[in-house]
Design a protein that fits this description.
This protein folds into four domains: about 15-40 and about 225-255 and about 400-440, no CATH class; about 45-215, Jelly Rolls; about 260-395, Jelly Rolls (Sandwich), CATH 2.60.120; about 445-605, Jelly Rolls. It is built from four helices and 42 strands. Strands 14, 15, 17, 20, 24, 26 and 27 form a seven-stranded antiparallel beta sheet that branches. Strands 16, 18, 19, 21, 22, 23 and 25 form a seven-stranded antiparallel beta sheet that branches. Strands 3, 5, 7, 8, 9 and 11 form a six-stranded antiparallel beta sheet that branches.
């Protein structure tokens, strides 16, 4: 599948066989996909849960495993099945379990499944019996081992539905036992909870799980230290040197096979004051750091310019008076906060705060993670692990790009193709299959927008989140390379069809009333030509729902991470809902280094 591409040699003839092995198939079959064929159909898994499962929530907490039976979920996407066995059962026979969004050869070894996968889940649950002593979080299990990790545990609301989430970068290998989603709960009176599931469609409020293949198992592939420059046009008289072919084919595909990735987990420990504190990960080494960017127990030095999916969950041990704390990323001298989370009243409870962003980073940037608390004396957990993930997702580009997704169905280069520039002749075919396809996969469509002017709106209904600033948060890089964003309509119109990764964090002002809550969401009225249901189960889709602390001084935030198929011309927009029994309006916050932001990235055909 994504096997190491060959090195093109000077004075060696260009053969259809070598082109096909590098770009389409390593053994002549469609199922042994390689190069362009694999990366234009990157293995993905997207599912929603349809079972209103009862969750145990005794004092002290309990994790309940979701799914496991045929028909407990709907498989929205499982394209590993294109190349062999899928990650789960198909359609509405899915189990809400994953054998891995991988396919034969995805480990970087012919026929072997595996690779590093980015995983995320969101699980909404019913209100708790009371706020005092109640908390909730989503979790991951890998195989039959102990809990792999847990997302940010948040206080439970007794008025509104709750929704937590978990993110990680994990190694999937054959026989790893499968990946499952868990929901951890503790209720103030020990009352059980219920999963909020949409049993009729995949829209609205319902549990979601996503898995994205990101890279091969190990460093048997080349480490590409600078962003390649594939040839952009091939004509009848264009010379194709070994250097041109290596930059276009070998280096581009090697980078897509094994991009920079870093993941570290550690129980941090230590007592916090109220000042911003840099997190020290010295108690552990990275699970993966394939470009050796991690150093000094605190820093990640960016090895290659590009768009990076960045996530950090910091775990705090707390019990007592509610307060706020936040985690985030520092690049150079600038802090990029995630939302301020509430730590609640459950005694001896571990609470979490997360930051999730796609950042435009340059090679040599130094990035650290931090935590800050509104009250002194809080303790970083020395038992439950915090974690930090970094994944290179694509190149930073100029604007106005017009490359189109590869059309790979049934195609292979043929020997004795006649010369010429027509679409069916050699130069014409190379111009499409080498120049276009490789440039598209390296320079895939993306969007980076954030809010620079605060907005106000009414409560208890979803509303669009306005984003005025187009550009990367860190370096102000090109924010919309294919020209799909409309600031007037506050939505992105897909310029090319495909599956897109969507990331959102919303920021609202402090000073919430009792029981107030925010929910992040995405509005996708039509996906793949199918309109969302015109019912209460329709759009927008719900993601994290976070209770706010009454009288807090810092902006709270909620997160959404999703995968959506968009035909050319279909739209996606960031949305949020502020729920309150007392307030009639809310306002976003753009003054505390935490602005609402929205990112979008093309993933797969």
């Amino acid at each position: 599948m994504p096997l190491s591409p060959s090195t093109w040699q000077t004075f060696s003839p260009i053969t259809a066989h070598q082109l096909n092995q590098d770009m389409y198939t390593y053994d002549g079959s469609y199922f042994a996909a390689n190069g362009v064929l694999f990366h234009s159909n990157r293995p993905l898994l997207v599912e929603t849960y349809t079972t209103a499962q009862v969750l145990g929530a005794p004092k002290g907490g309990k994790t309940t495993i979701l799914g496991g039976t045929v028909g407990s979920a709907i498989s929205v996407l499982d394209n590993a099945a294109l190349f062999g066995v899928g990650a789960d059962a198909p359609a509405d026979a899915a189990k809400f379990r994953s054998a891995g969004a991988v396919a034969p050869g995805s480990a970087g070894i012919a026929g072997v499944q595996g690779g590093w996968n980015l995983i995320f889940n969101f699980v909404p649950v019913s209100p708790f019996s009371q706020t005092t002593g109640s908390a909730f979080g989503s979790a991951w299990y890998l195989g039959t081992t102990a809990q792999q990790d847990i997302g940010p545990v948040q206080p439970g609301s007794a008025v509104y539905d709750n929704c937590g989430f978990a993110v990680d970068l994990v190694l999937r290998t054959p026989g790893d036992g499968g990946l499952t989603v868990g929901a951890w709960m503790t209720d103030g009176t020990g009352r059980n909870g219920t999963v909020r599931s949409n049993v009729t469609s995949t829209c609205g409020e319902t549990p979601r799980v996503g898995e994205i293949w990101c890279g091969v198992l190990s460093g048997n592939n080349l480490l590409i230290r600078s962003v390649p420059s594939p040839i952009t046009s091939i004509g009848a008289a264009t010379p194709l040197s070994s250097g041109t072919l290596n930059s276009s084919i070998q280096q581009t595909l090697a980078l897509l096979n094994y991009p920079p990735m870093m993941s570290i987990q550690a129980p941090l420990g230590g007592i916090l004051g109220t000042a911003l504190t840099t997190l020290n990960w010295s108690s552990n080494t990275p699970v993966i750091d394939n470009f050796s960017g991690f150093s000094q127990s605190t820093n990640y030095v960016v090895p290659l310019s590009g768009l990076y999916f960045c996530h950090c969950t910091t775990v705090l041990e707390h019990g007592g008076v509610p307060g706020q704390f936040a985690t985030g990323f520092k690049v150079g001298a600038t802090n990029y906060f995630g939302g301020w989370y509430t730590y609640g009243t459950a005694q001896n409870q571990y609470y979490g705060a997360a930051a999730t962003k796609i950042l435009d980073l340059n090679a040599g940037d130094t990035i650290t993670t931090f935590v800050q608390s509104s009250t002194g004396g809080q303790i970083l957990s020395a038992v439950s692990s915090s974690h930090w993930n970094m994944v290179w997702m694509g190149a930073i580009t100029s604007g106005g790009l017009t490359w189109v997704p590869p059309e790979v169905t049934g195609f292979q280069f043929q020997a004795a193709t006649p010369p010429g520039t027509a679409a069916t002749q050699l130069a014409g075919i190379m111009n499409t299959k080498i120049a276009n396809d490789l440039n598209f996969l390296l320079n895939r469509p993306y969007l980076m927008v954030h809010q620079s002017t605060a907005q106000s709106s009414t409560v208890n209904q979803f509303v669009p989140v306005t984003m005025q600033a187009v550009g990367g948060l860190v370096h102000g890089s090109t924010g919309d390379n294919y020209g799909g964003w409309s600031a007037v309509n506050n939505k992105y119109t897909a310029q090319v069809a495909g599956w897109y990764l969507a990331v959102e964090e919303i920021s609202v002002t402090a000073g919430a009333g009792a029981s107030d809550q925010i929910t992040a969401g995405f509005s996708v009225p039509t996906s793949g030509g199918f309109a969302s249901p015109a019912t209460s189960h329709g759009q927008p889709d719900w993601y994290q729902s976070l209770p706010l602390v009454s009288g807090g001084t810092q902006p709270a935030g909620a997160t959404a991470i999703g995968c959506y198929y968009l035909n050319q011309g279909e739209t996606i927009a960031p949305a949020m809902m502020y729920q309150s029994q007392a307030r009639t309006a809310w306002t976003t916050d753009v003054t505390h280094n935490f602005n609402s932001h929205f990112e979008l990235l093309w993933l797969s055909n």
